[in-house]
């Protein structure tokens, strides 16, 4: 398990990848990480966007909602606190207002195994509808954590989405996959034509092979190389 400083570098690389994957909405949205089970975590500060964040922009936070909050912590900190409290095995969380996920979340439609990503996420992304406002309280955060359940992601209807992973690398890869799955299905729906989806046997096989830990690691390694090629300033962080 990397040290916290190394995790923050991963989170920053992940943030740049999220930006490239269409997750930007000005400076909004967050990425956070911790060692699974830890009571402390670190989160992108409120002022910077996914496209520009560096390790210096991350702020320390704790899972306990009663603890003092850093001045630069994002207002939606309770969302992360509640999910980390509910899911000890989780090591990374992404919350964004990515457009395809936002539009798909507002539709009366379920994600289908249209693509590889869809095979992972089909029927597994619930919708949270209690409020579409910014998550400002631990009560709303806890309700979202309940809607997430043991899943990978939840749509915050008319707001955005939340993606959780057992590492920040998993959370980033799954966030990129969710946006792509939503975009592809929206494109298929917009065509107005009928379309095919993978059968149940293929869905099980894809979940076993394409989303095996070793595979997710290779998607992260590719993402990491790509981001570092496009953002040479990252080399000065390590
Ligand atoms: Zn938000």
Structure explained in plain terms:
By secondary structure, the protein is of the alpha+beta class. Helix content is 44%, strand content 14%. The protein contains 8 helices and 7 strands. It has helices at residues 4-20, 77-86, 99-106, 116-121, 138-148, 168-191, 200-209, 213-230, and strands spanning 30-33, 40-44, 58-62, 92-96, 125-128, 153-156, 160-165. It has a 7-stranded mixed β-sheet, with helices on both faces. Helix 1 packs across helix 8. The mean pLDDT is 95. This is L-fuculose-phosphate aldolase. InterPro entries: Aldolase-II_Adducin_sf, Aldolase_II/adducin_N, Aldolase_II/adducin_N_sf. Pfam families: Aldolase_II. Belongs to the aldolase class II family. Its EC number is 4.1.2.17.
List keywords for this structure.
238 residues; alpha+beta; 7 strands; 14% strand; globular; binds zinc ion; Aldolase-II_Adducin_sf
Layout of strands and helices, then pairs:
Layout: H1 4-20, E1 30-33, E2 40-44, E3 58-62, H2 77-86, E4 92-96, H3 99-106, H4 116-121, E5 125-128, H5 138-148, E6 153-156, E7 160-165, H6 168-191, H7 200-209, H8 213-230
Parallel strand pairs: 5-6
Antiparallel strand pairs: 1-2, 1-4, 2-3, 4-7, 6-7
This protein binds zinc ion.
Q: Could you tell me which ligands this complex binds, including any ions or cofactors?
A: zinc ion
* Secondary-structure element pattern, one letter each: HEEEHEHHEHEEHHH
For the termini, the CA-CA separation is 17 Å
Class by SSE composition? alpha+beta
Strand residues, percent: 5-15%
User: On the 0-100 scale, what is the average pLDDT?
Assistant: 95
Give the beta-strand count. Answer: 7
Number of helices: 8
What percent of the residues sit in helical stretches (DSSP H or I)? Answer: 40-55%
Radius of gyration: 17 Å
